């Protein structure tokens, strides 16, 4: 085997390893070898050897029968390391604490990753609220106030490149037409914040605002509140708190 062939083989193995870990990360629970093969399309013998290697290294784990596979503890360690080492998350912590205290509602910090947002930090509401987000969770950008606030910092042509014409509905309120979403992004640019009107979770309204330490922005913060508890006065308080948080985070992240 030539050096070039060896290098090509190593890259292929690395790509397959990453794709396999992403498969498990996006599908919680345990999966049979047949199910994994159907999803990733690798030859069965190669897939089995790769899985066994990852099991030995604790990146993948098996059930008691040894025939079903799921994400391993090593993946958690890497994810935690990413959060712990991120300068924006560190800079945002005091501001997230402040806005959570000011509003009494659930606060999120998230990052745009392709067509999704990934949650980096959360402050839970002082009221009872069924957990619906967690650090590391990915949600479609078009259905969240965080994602829409971030998409609004991109030109319309770039949004068209990122998103398909028809968007996946998460609830009956989700915008599913890309051009309608683009029209809303123009409104978001005008007023400075985005609204999720039960588009991701029924009964929940969210307000999001981008952090402009980069252009286009890649991070945003949001405040989530049950519709049943959202009064006009409380909504105004949330908006003012978000603008104040944006200004604080702009200062805290200006060196990044």
UniProtKB/TrEMBL annotation:
This is IclR family transcriptional regulator. Keywords: DNA-binding, Transcription, Transcription regulation. It comes from Streptomyces chisholmiae. InterPro entries: GAF-like_dom_sf, HTH_MetabolicPath_Reg, Tscrpt_reg_IclR_C, Tscrpt_reg_IclR_N, WH-like_DNA-bd_sf, WH_DNA-bd_sf. Residues 11-73 form the HTH iclR-type domain. It holds the Pfam family IclR_C. It comes from the Bacteria. Residues 74-256 form the IclR-ED domain. Signal peptide: none annotated.
């Amino acid at each position: 085997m030539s050096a070039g062939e060896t290098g090509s083989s190593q890259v292929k193995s690395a790509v397959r390893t990453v794709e396999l870990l992403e498969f498990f990360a996006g599908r919680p629970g345990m999966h049979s070898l047949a199910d994994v093969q159907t999803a990733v399309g690798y030859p069965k013998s190669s897939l089995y050897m790769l899985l066994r290697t990852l099991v030995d290294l604790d990146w993948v784990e098996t059930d008691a029968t040894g025939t079903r596979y799921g994400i391993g503890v090593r993946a958690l360690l890497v994810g935690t390391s990413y959060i712990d080492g991120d300068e924006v998350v560190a800079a945002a912590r005091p501001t997230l604490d402040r806005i959570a205290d000011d509003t009494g509602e659930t606060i999120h910090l998230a990052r745009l990753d392709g067509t999704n947002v990934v949650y980096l930090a959360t402050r839970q509401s002082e009221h009872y609220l069924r957990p619906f987000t967690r650090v590391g969770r990915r949600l479609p950008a078009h259905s969240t106030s965080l994602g829409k606030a971030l998409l609004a910092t991109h030109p319309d042509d770039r949004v068209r490149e990122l998103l398909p014409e028809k968007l996946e509905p998460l609830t009956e309120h989700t915008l599913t037409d890309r051009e309608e979403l683009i029209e809303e992004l123009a409104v978001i640019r005008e007023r400075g914040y985005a609204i999720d009107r039960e588009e991701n979770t029924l009964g929940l309204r969210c307000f999001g605002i981008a952090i402009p330490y980069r252009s286009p922005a890649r991070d945003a913060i949001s405040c989530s509140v049950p519709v049943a508890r959202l009064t006009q006065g409380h909504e105004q308080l949330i908006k003012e708190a978000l603008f104040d948080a944006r200004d604080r985070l702009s200062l805290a992240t200006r060196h990044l």
